[in-house]
Amino acid sequence: MYGQGGVECSLDDLGGYATICVDTRVFSEAAILKTAYWLTDSYFLYLSRDCQDPASKLSVELRLKEPSDNVQQLLKIACREFGNHLLDQEVRQVVQTETAGLRDALVQKAFFEGRSSSPMM
Hints:
By secondary structure, the protein is α+β, with helices and mostly antiparallel strands. Helix content is 46%, strand content 27%.
């Protein structure tokens, strides 16, 4: 077993897996789901809430889709990548929220200009 910073790698009857426990008070659920989706090409992912405190913890279990001789190493790397991508997604969520008004104004202006410049039928 390997454990570090909310990450636990273990083996069971189905093979190797890693569990990442994410604090939803730090990272939004949207960022967690987007990050999990990013890994679905190589891993099966299972998400669950913490039974004791479902409002603050979300667990993500990763399992390799293809068998490998170095399962533990691949899972450790995937967990590190998950952390980096999780931070990236959270920043994207913050920027999206901060710029929503500007984005909506630009889209509205583009549609208005497109409508007024089209020929009448």
